[in-house]
Specification:
It is an enzyme of class 2 (transferase). It holds the Pfam family BATS. Its EC number is 2.8.1.6. Belongs to the radical SAM superfamily. Biotin synthase family. This protein is of the alpha/beta class. The chain has 2 domains: 97 residues, no CATH class; 278 residues, Alpha-Beta Barrel (TIM Barrel), CATH 3.20.20. The strands form 2 sheets. Strands 1, 2, 3, 4, 5, 6, 7, 8, 9 and 12 form a 10-stranded parallel sheet that branches. Strands 10-11 form a two-stranded antiparallel sheet. The termini are far apart. Bound molecules: iron/sulfur cluster (SF4). The site of iron/sulfur cluster (SF4) has 8 residues, from loops.
Length: 472
């Protein structure tokens, strides 16, 4: 596919006879496709995810002073995209409505040499970082137009200042005394074909981990576990299955829907994590009453291929799109301690905070190294990185529930309390968290008592309207 000259697929080959999978394949190659193909394909097939991605790509290219790369048929869309951007270098200056398709694919202009700007002094950089933080903390509604530079400026603030400002945001958008208690059950252990380097459930590392694959748990067993979780105070029950995706798993999907219905009937929120799902599977799960779907991005787009090679970042985003389009809450976060840098943590935050809607839940996992996996010998991530990530996430996604997930078992109580102060407001609690140890209900109840916390009620996300003081 050519980027220069005329946009061939736009003028010749987009019609309803194209199978939808063609467009899905295109959407996975965003760097090599004209956004207008996606926009047009989304119009033909009614796929909102593609349209959103195409718009993002158009905006990014305009922001980078590149040609918009769209055809005349999309003038209305570009008008909207242009009006949101302040710099439209190399874009036509005539009114968009008077331009033809070919006007939109002009030869690339030779960039005029720009005088080199004087490098910023440390003092200027700090002043700018403070301004970014001030503006972020003063926001009264979530923003989706974050740049990496802005998120990095927030992430790298002096740590206590960052935690303090995150606490201020937390108190404006949430009741700071409330923490959601979730229990996560593995409903199908091991035997997964993926190669996630941190995971004990991959068949590729089975020799080293010794983990035996099991069949899917019965509906009765799962509902009994949910009942126990509820009795102990959990208000959300999450179910995880070690699968790449749900293709060809009709019977399992039927059983899982029964589990979802059963847990909802107990008055609990219910979440599942089943690998990649398509639009139809997401719709069926929504109909069964699913509250949320977990599918983590894990890390930054750049670092991701060092951890997983069997599915792409864009495939993960595609599943999140299906979940969102079905009206299910999105739970998507990351794992710290994989060997990533601060820039990768910023990259992860940027990926989720610039989605068209922020995930309702952002789990922050600290890697629990499991012997036999490629990351089994890794050092544990420093707590300061966990706290930074929690606090920065709270500031850039003020309405999202931030969940301290894997790795909490080894965190001293004071560290957990710092996370709660800086914006974390959910934990996993119970006997186990998938294949790793978890803080128990009694232990958490004692800790809540000591720090003046209380369990969040089901289906209650925010308690305090922005701008009001906390009731506590
Ligand atoms: S897809 Fe899930 S279960 Fe499979 S290896 Fe990756 S993390 Fe483990």
């Amino acid at each position: 596919m050519s980027h220069g000259g005329v946009c061939r697929p736009c003028i010749s080959s987009i019609d309803k006879s194209k199978p939808e999978s063609t467009w899905r394949d295109f959407s996975l190659r965003l760097d090599t496709i004209h956004p207008c193909h996606l926009i047009k394909a989304s119009a033909v097939h009614g796929r909102r995810t593609m349209r959103r991605r195409a718009l993002q790509l158009v905006s990014t290219r305009i922001g980078r002073s590149q040609r918009p790369l769209a055809c005349g048929a999309q003038l209305g869309t570009l008008t909207a995209a242009r009006s949101r951007m302040s710099t439209v270098a190399a874009a036509p200056t005539a009114p968009l409505s008077t331009l033809s398709a070919e006007t939109f694919h002009p030869p690339a202009p030779t960039p005029a040499p720009t005088p080199a700007a004087a490098p910023e002094t440390d003092g200027e950089q700090q002043r700018r970082a403070k301004q970014i933080l001030r503006r972020a903390v003063a926001a009264t509604a979530p923003r989706h137009d974050w740049t990496r530079e802005e998120i990095a400026a927030i992430y790298h603030q002096p740590l206590l200042e960052l935690a303090y400002q995150a606490a201020a945001v937390h108190r404006r958008f949430h009741d700071p005394a409330e923490v959601q208690l979730c229990t996560l059950m593995n409903i199908k252990t091991g035997g997964c074909t993926e190669d996630c380097s941190y995971c004990a459930q991959s068949t590729r590392y089975q020799k080293g981990t010794g983990l035996q694959a099991k069949r899917v748990e019965s509906v009765e067993t799962v509902l009994e576990a949910a009942r126990i979780a509820k009795e102990n105070g959990s208000t959300r029950f999450c179910m995880g299955a070690a699968w790449r995706d749900m293709r060809g798993r009709k019977t399992s999907l039927r059983n899982i829907k029964e589990m979802v219905q059963g847990v909802r009937a107990m008055g609990m929120e219910v979440c599942v994590t089943l690998g990649m799902i398509d639009a139809e599977q997401a719709r069926e799960l929504k109909e069964a009453g699913l509250t949320a779907y977990n599918h983590n991005l894990d890390t930054s787009r750049e670092f991701y291929p060092s951890i997983i090679t069997t599915r792409t970042y864009d495939e993960r985003l595609e599943t999140l799109g299906h979940v969102r389009d079905a009206g299910i809450h999105v739970c998507s976060g990351g794992i710290l301690g994989l060997g990533e840098s601060d820039a990768d943590r910023v990259g992860l935050l940027h990926s989720v905070a610039t989605l068209p809607s922020h995930p309702e839940s952002f789990p922050v996992n600290a890697l629990v190294p499991i012997k036999g996996t490629p990351l089994g010998e890794r050092e544990r991530v420093e707590f300061t990185s966990v706290l930074r990530t929690v606090a920065a996430a709270r500031i850039v996604m003020p309405e999202t529930i931030i969940r301290i997930a894997a790795g909490r078992k080894t965190m001293p109580e004071e560290q957990q309390a710092l996370c709660f102060m800086a914006g974390a407001n959910a934990v996993f609690t119970g006997d186990k968290m998938l294949t790793t140890e978890c803080n128990g209900w009694d232990e958490d109840a004692d800790m809540f008592g000591r720090w003046g916390l209380r369990p969040m009620r089901s289906f209650r996300k925010t308690a305090v309207a922005p701008g009001e003081d906390s009731p506590n």
